[in-house]
From TrEMBL:
Protein's organism: Mesorhizobium japonicum (strain LMG 29417 / CECT 9101 / MAFF 303099)
Name by which UniProt lists this protein: Msl6830 protein
Domain of life of the organism encoding this protein: Bacteria
Domain spans labelled Transposase IS200-like: 9-84
SMART domains: Y1_Tnp
GO-annotated biological processes: DNA transposition
Amino acid sequence: MARLARIVVPGLPHHVTQRGNRRAKVFFTPEDYALYKTLLAEHCRAANVGIWAWCLMPNHVHLILTPADPGGLRRALAKVHRELR
């Protein structure tokens, strides 16, 4: 079955989740969590995406983000997750 297209509404908060493959851990040290928060702040600021809340778990994240335009979430999070590797 095909995946449904995401609907991004500028100016409204979105609940975003990201999980490691096969629920594998993605954060191993306190420095990993700090790096993620730094990258998230940097790239959300650049993409004009507001950060309302975050919850970083060992194998996944929950974010409440508000994009200013339809492509903001994609631009910000793609860069965060590419740089985190």
